[in-house]
Amino acid sequence: MTNPSSKDPLHGVTLEALLNTLVNKYGWPELAKRIKINCFKSDPSIKSSLKFLRRTPWARKEVEDLYIDFLHDEQENNDHEGPWANWQAKKPQD
């Protein structure tokens, strides 16, 4: 998804992939609540949203910021659920 040597979390992520990730995570109704743009409220689709976001820099920035927040939340969850997080639960019973 992203290049580990790049500090930009959006490096290598297309707007379409970013939007699909957010739609899968939150759904259209929640996206419409979080980002007040009509393309998320009225008959939402990936195609129409991409068209709008590519032409509207402020809206694209809002979506990118939400995606970055999502990545940080995912990273925090993964940090708490490291490989040894549930080692006792996985330990065989004698």
Describe this structure in words.
By secondary structure, the protein is mainly alpha-helical. It has helices spanning 15-34, 38-41, 46-55, 57-80, 87-90. The N and C termini lie far apart (42 Å). It has a domain at 22-75: Transcription Termination Factor Rho, Rna-binding Domain, Chain A, Domain 1, CATH 1.10.720. Helix 1 crosses helix 4 and helix 3 (46-55) packs across helix 4. The protein contains five helices and no strands.
Q: What is the correct CATH architecture of the domain at 22-75?
A: Orthogonal Bundle
**CATH class wording of the domain at 22-75:** Mainly Alpha
Question: Number of helix segments?
Answer: 5
In CATH terms, the superfamily of the domain at 22-75 is: SAP domain
Low-confidence stretches: none
Q: The CATH topology of the domain at 22-75 is what?
A: Transcription Termination Factor Rho, Rna-binding Domain, Chain A, Domain 1
For the secondary structure, the number of strands is 0
Report the major sheet: none
Task: Note the overall shape.
Answer: elongated
Strand content: under 5%
Helix content: 55-70%
Structural class: mainly alpha
What average pLDDT do the residues reach?
85
Radius of gyration: 17 Å
SSE run: HHHHH
Distance between the termini: 42 Å
InterPro entries: DNA-binding_VF530-like, SAP_dom_sf
GO molecular function: DNA binding
